[in-house]
Specification:
Length: 145
């Protein structure tokens, strides 16, 4: 028996868009904004969570929330067919706030946020020790312009 992959429709995409702006929006607030019944919103959210389309709800913080946090972009080169393994390992590092595949000379781009230079140094060492990582280049974000 094969299970069909759930494909979100227009209403699902609108719900997700509203949650990206306000992840704590109530069912009532979402139903009012979308012009649908509260029960419809609740059923749709339940389905989005059950199918794994929505992985969870999170807090978004202003970029300048903590000026002492070290922000960096790390470019990662992967050897052979180990990309899936490397991605799994990188997702396990809490200081990596987002991870993206890319084209060109690099295979992955990781956004790193660390609380101190020693934490940042530890993250760099952890990434470089992952089997399948052949090279990396990291740039610190100094200021937003």
């Amino acid at each position: 028996m094969t299970i069909a992959k759930y494909v979100p429709d227009e209403l699902d995409r609108r719900i997700i868009a509203h949650l990206r702006v306000d992840g704590r929006a109530s069912f009532a607030k979402l139903s009012e904004a979308l012009g649908v019944a509260r029960g419809t919103v609740q059923n749709r959210l339940d389905r989005l969570v059950e199918t794994g389309t929505l992985l969870g709800f999170t807090v978004r913080v202003r970029e300048d929330y903590d000026d002492r946090t070290i922000h960096a972009v790390m470019l990662v080169e992967v050897v052979g067919k180990s990309t899936t393994h490397v991605i799994r390992k990188l997702r396990g590092i809490p200081e990596i706030s987002s991870l993206h595949t890319t084209n060109g000379n690099w295979d992955l781009i990781a956004n790193v946020r660390a609380g101190s230079l020693s934490d940042f140094d530890r993250v760099l060492r952890e990434v470089r020790m992952i089997d399948g990582v052949s090279n990396s280049e990291t740039s610190l974000m100094l200021s937003s312009v």
